[in-house]
Amino acid sequence: MNFYRVREFISTVKKHDRPVLSELKGAFQGKSLMPMAVHRVP
What we know:
By secondary structure, the chain is mainly α. It has a domain at 1-29. The chain has helices spanning 3-15, 20-28. It starts with a helix and ends in a 14-residue tail after the last helix.
């Protein structure tokens, strides 16, 4: 992983109000973040 991918991952985790350290640990263990899909109606 490069710096920018990790930074973007952290940004996404924060957007979804998830615990950053737990999600990073899971990512390095091969568990992926599955954010909820949000459908917006114009």
